[in-house]
Amino acid sequence: RVYYISLEFYMGRTLQNTMVNLALENACDEAMYQMGLDMEELEDMEEDAGLGNGGLGRLAACFLDSMASLGLAAYGYGIRYEFGIFNQKIVNGWQVEEADDWLRYGNPWEKARPEYMRPVHFYGRTEHNPDGVKWVDTQVVLALPYDTPVPGYRNNIVNTMRLWSAKAPCEFNLKDCTFNIGGYIQAVLDRNLAENISRVLYPNDNFFEGKELRLKQEYFVVSATLQDIIRRFKVSKFGSREIARTDFSKLPDKAWDICVRTCAYTNHTVLPEALERWPVDLFAHLLPRHLEIVYEINRRHLEDFYEMEPHKFQNKTNGITPRRWLVMCNPGLAEVIAERIGEDFIRDLDQLKRLRDFANDDALIRDIAKVKQENKLKFAVHLEEHYKVKINPNSMFDVQVKRIHEYKRQLLNCLHIITYYNRIKREPNKQWTPRTVMIGGKAAPGYHTAKMIIRLITAIGEVVNHDPVIGDRLKVIFLENYRVTLAEKAIPASDLSEQISTAGTEASGTGNMKFMLNGALTIGTMDGANVEMAEEAGEDNLFIFGMRVDDVDALDKKGYHAEEYYNRLPELKQAIDQIAGGFFSPKQADMFKEIVNMLMHHDRFKVFADYEDYIKCQDKVNALYKNPKEWTRKVIYNIAGCGKFSSDRTIAQYAREIWGMEPTLEKLPAPDDKQ
């Protein structure tokens, strides 16, 4: 069995995904229709399960889908946060956070399992006696499991995601208040302290905040899950003669060997500020016995160097599930593909390479362009309903959606928007390629620079969108409250995917793969999985620009001086002067002085160093967009190169190369099959 333990599972909505995987979509649509109800209206009532920040949490969700679809006996284990990632409102151009009370009306997909409740211990002290060590005087919190089904794709397999909720034990704090009159009421109120463990998801993406509550959450999920795994192991026969194992006297001798053979860890980032480093005194206070064990492991490590085993260090390129990210969110495109190569690609995404034979097929080119146009019209209607902005559906939909972070360089995108705006203003009678630039994503509530970046984007929009000289040739829209469900609408409607992080900073990225699979072309740096995307689709079929990792290293050695670029490139200087001089913030001229100061004097991510090549690359994008047939040919090569980026491939590699399991595409017999 494989146990995937994560602090985040960014599941989004469940209804439509379940219908797709169970092949029930048409039957349900029809049944609803006969009752005079509308399926889309029902789907829109479901809350997102937003138990994740971004890539890492969404990857866990894709992995659950793939593990079930590949017939692995897999369980996802995590925390049932009462409040998931905050809802983002834009008020006067600024991000405002709102609690995500996603359980307000209940959750029909979960089943509480109180019979599997587990105690988790905190604090206390250790007692060292001749017969061993005891951890005593601890505080106990109960972990109450909730199970959510995870159906595989049309194989009659259903796995489980088990999320733990924190509950105070009945006797919590009450032993202390025998002679204290007001003590009883306070003791009951203080039960909240224990139950706060599963109250809220920490909203940081790629950033470590060493808070005690977060360490409690981590230990809570690990302890409850390990107890559950051992309970399940005890009651499983696994071909042994005994009904249940009761003699664990030999377990201590085997514990280290068991750990080494059963546990694997995946690191998801290369940014140093994202790596966890806990203060020893905090750790000692919360988990005193565990710290002693960590010290003992470290002592042995220094003597044996047992970790220096190269086979334990592997890479696994991420992937996305084609069920949610193609069949479900883009049925029109899935249908056009199936008409050419059949439906097996949904299980075996490598088959998309058969589309290369159709790259010059006028009928396919026409069909793919038509689906894209339909998706754009549908999304334009959605935007006009929700944001009251008029969208030109013939413009290029240029989209950057991801968490707001300096390394993801939404600021570089802003500089292109301003440059393009200035060019149209300079020569208003030229034939410009019309663009609707959409940027969306949440900023961590404590990340001041990220919040300023959002304010800059909305400020640029206020100027650009109301300039009569520009008309509908350039629009800038900030997509509010970007989340799984909004991604499912925006990505199928996108023409251009912005993947423009500084080379060497994005460990993989998965949004890039979703755009590629949904018929967008990519403008990007040679960073993360963009490198492999260029390999699979052909570098000519992506718009690659900017420094490579070696160039970044060389620039670090030489020293990065932003002023050199500012002084050498007049269009860059103009854009920065406009930001600094209040052109985009007339009521408060110095609103963006911190951003300008950062870009000019301490920009870790070297925005100016890639500016010139980025603008030139965007010019190439504009030129190609004017030739729809050539554009769509490149789209076909991109879709055809997506096979590698299925999470089925990722999971098959984990299974064979790390877990020692063999995936299968066999179906179980359906429960109603009379065999």
Automatic annotation (TrEMBL):
The keyword Acetylation does not apply. It is an enzyme of class 2 (transferase). It catalyses: [(1->4)-alpha-D-glucosyl](n) + phosphate = [(1->4)-alpha-D-glucosyl](n-1) + alpha-D-glucose 1-phosphate. Keywords: Allosteric enzyme, Carbohydrate metabolism, Glycogen metabolism, Glycosyltransferase, Pyridoxal phosphate, Transferase. Transmembrane segments: none annotated. InterPro entries: Glycg_phsphrylas (IPR011833), Glyco_trans_35 (IPR000811), Pyridoxal_P_attach_site (IPR035090). Its EC number is 2.4.1.1. Its cofactor is pyridoxal 5'-phosphate. PROSITE patterns: PHOSPHORYLASE (PS00102). Belongs to the glycogen phosphorylase family. Allosteric enzyme that catalyzes the rate-limiting step in glycogen catabolism, the phosphorolytic cleavage of glycogen to produce glucose-1-phosphate, and plays a central role in maintaining cellular and organismal glucose homeostasis. This is Alpha-1,4 glucan phosphorylase. It comes from Xenotaenia resolanae.
